[in-house]
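pinging the channel bc i need a second pair of eyes. not urgent but kinda urgent?? the chain im working w is below, pasted from the shared doc
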Amino acid sequence: MKKTLLNQAAKASILGRIDQLQPSAQAQWGRMSVAQMVCHCGDQFKLASGEIAVTPKPSFAGRTIMKWLVLGGMPAPKGKVQTYAEIDQVANGGTSPTLFASDIKALKLQIETFIARGDDFNWQIHPTFGKMSHRQWAKLAYSHLDHHLSQFGA
C-alpha cells in the first residue's frame, strides 16, 4: 500500500483509524489531548490550502534534505518535532476543539476536500519544505495523520 492519501487503500485505512478514536484516549507521547490532536491534524489541511498562514522557517536543509527524508517515509521522532505556533494546540494556536464527534466529522471532510482539490489547486508553500505538489502534500498528510493516530493508539 502506498503511504499517501491519494491511494484508496491508504485513505480508507486512515479514515477507519480516525473512526477508532475515543474522546477518552490517552496520548502515548506528547502533550496534546485527543481532541486537540484531531483539530491539529485538520489544521494541516488548512495550512496546505492557505486557510491558515504559518510563518515560514526556510532553510536549505529543510527544502532539500529534510523534505526528501520526510516525503521518503522517515517517521517523525515521537515527541521530538516542534510544531508551528499557528497550529500548536497546546499553546492555544490553531483550531480549538468543540464537540468531539463534530471535530472528527470535520477532519474527515477536510481529507475528502483535500483529495478532491487535485493537482490544479493553488497549494500553499510549506513553511519548512517550500513548494510542494498535491502528491507531496498527500504523502506528508498521510505521514502526519499516521503519526498522530499512532500517538493515540489508533
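so Residues 5 and 12 are 9 Å apart (CA to CA). and The chain has a mean pLDDT of 92. — does that match what u expected or am i reading it wrong
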